[in-house]
Design a protein that fits this description.
alpha/beta; Rossmann fold; 7-stranded mixed sheet; 7 strands; globular; binds S-adenosylmethionine
Length: 288
Amino acid sequence: MSQKESALTPVPDEVGHHYDRLAVIAATKPGDNLHVGYWDSPDSEVPAEEATDRLTDVMAEKLKIGADSHVLDVGCGIGGPGVRIARLTGAQLTGISVSQEQVKLANSLAESAGLADRVVFQQANAMELPFPAQSFDAVIALESILHMPDRGQVLAQICRVLRPGGRLVLTDWFERAPIPAAKQPTVDRFHSSFMSTMVQAEDYPPMLRRAGLWFEEILDISEQTLRKSFLWFSAHMNQAWFSARMNQAQPDFETTFGDKAADRFDTADMADIPEFGYLMVVAKRPEE
Ligand SMILES: C[S@@+](CC[C@H](N)C(=O)[O-])C[C@H]1O[C@@H](n2cnc3c(N)ncnc32)[C@H](O)[C@@H]1O
């Protein structure tokens, strides 16, 4: 497969540890989403907190679910997208994350939303989904597959747990055009600090087919998502309270949100790399 390896191919336990540490910080940030925002037009002035919910909604609409559906959220973060989907559609939702700390926060969120009877989060590795075959009507993987060491294996696992006719909607990093040599070190640093890799858009149809899924749609949503999001993350991370909280919580934390301002990767550096893209993929398990 042509998945581009960064200096650091993600290892699920390490990604889990990374998010356990981040959970301390995430619990203090506005909103319950850990993903980019979606702005319908470049001049939209919608606040980032609303734009992140908007991305969840755009994806949820493509799942074609209702109150009788059971949805799996692969890489559920601190529960914002899963709780929102369950609240707006009436569906039952099970979310998984490799981070135990995220799972605790996500279950508290479900409880405070009064949804704990139909929204449950648990620690699990998407590379080996601990669910019986055909146990879900739909699967969402919002900005999580980019952290996984083998996308093909995750897609095969998702296909196994989807019922025939069920849909998968995911987002991922992708290379829209060759990254210019001068920008490659920034992209490499981003991937190694964020523990991610990226693909080419044309990798998806064959990867899905090999996993047993039918490719339905692939959308380049870079323009609606990335630039404003990278600038928003940067502004958020550069606030003094964020650094102080980070240093207090995890003095040895050296990845994306590194403990010393000078060491910290600034996501604003990614804002003007139009070759770096964000895609949404819709696929379906064929009817039998
Ligand atoms: C960028 S966050 C997105 C979280 C959430 N989907 C959201 O949009 O708010 C990536 C998520 O993927 C999860 N993740 C990464 N690798 C995983 C794996 N191998 N199995 C399960 N979850 C994983 C992380 O724990 C984290 O919750």
